[in-house]
Amino acid sequence: MDMTVVEKNLAVARRVCEGWAHMTREEFHEVMAPDVDYRNIPIEGDHHVGPDAAFEILNRFSQRWEVRLQVDNIAANEHAVLTERTEFFVDRAGKKPSFELPVMGTFDVRDGKITAWRDYFELSHLRLRG
Fold it and tell me: pTM of the full predicted structure?
């Protein structure tokens, strides 16, 4: 196993997992392949292709919620990174209750860029928040 590649894969996935709520559109382009496939698996039809599409959907979320991101566990090989995370949300308008979202994520990485990002979480955690 090429540890240099593994370390780079870990770094790019960690950057996204710890920073997506504060990253710029340009930063999404830095870490994602032009045809990155981003999906929130439990949400039917939630499929976004390209860094701009990923940025748009996540930016909408971070505009409504103040977000704190925490990586709990992370593991990688030369092709993929697996993450266990906790994402903390506080409604900027103060109308909805704060909540935590445990997330498992899979990142496919090629040549230092994320080519696919799939997040898995309990959908009821979001449904309760409206």
Answer: 0.92
In which residue are the tokens 């959907």 written?
57
Q: How far apart are CA 119 and CA 101, in angstroms?
A: 11
DSSP E strand stretches across 57-98: 65-76, 80-91
In angstroms, the CA 77 to CA 33 distance is 18
What pLDDT band is residue 127 in, cutting at 50, 70 and 90? Answer: low
Determine the 3-state secondary structure of 110 from DSSP: strand
Range of the domain at 95: 3-127
Rounded Cα gap, residues 81 and 74, in angstroms:
7
CATH code: domain of residue 100: 3.10.450.50
For 95-111, what is each residue's pLDDT tens digit?
999 999 999 999 999 99
